[in-house]
Amino acid sequence: MEVKRKELRREEEKVLLTFLKQTREGKYAKIDESSLPYSRLKEHREGPYYEEYYYSVR
Fold first, then answer.
1. Which of 9, 21, 22, 46 is least buried, going by the fewest C-beta atoms within 10 A?
2. By percentage, how much of the chain surpasses pLDDT 70?
3. How many Å apart are CA 47 and CA 58, to the nearest integer?
């Protein structure tokens, strides 16, 4: 279990470093603050929606 956590952490660090390098190289642009109040994607649900709750007792 500890090994999986370390591997997951390394993978997350790798993804973050890749993003930061690409940002520095200009692949991503600064977000225009005036566009933040507007959502770009509409919420869409397919089929019937049921709330599901899972309970656990240890």
1. 46
2. 74
3. 34
Whether 28 contacts 22, CB under 8 Å: yes
Q: How does 29-49 read in b/e, with b if 16+ C-beta sit within 10 Å?
A: eeeeeeeeeeeeeeeeeeeee
How far is it, in rounded angstroms, from Cα 47 to Cα 34? Answer: 35
Higher pLDDT, 33 or 45: 33
Task: Tell me how far apart the alpha carbons of residues 21 and 25 are, in angstroms, rounded to a whole number.
Answer: 6
Nearest 5 degrees, angle CA 41-CA 42-CA 45?
125
Nearest to 6 by CA among 19, 17, 14: 14
pTM for this structure?
Answer: 0.46
Residue 29 has pLDDT above 70, yes or no: yes
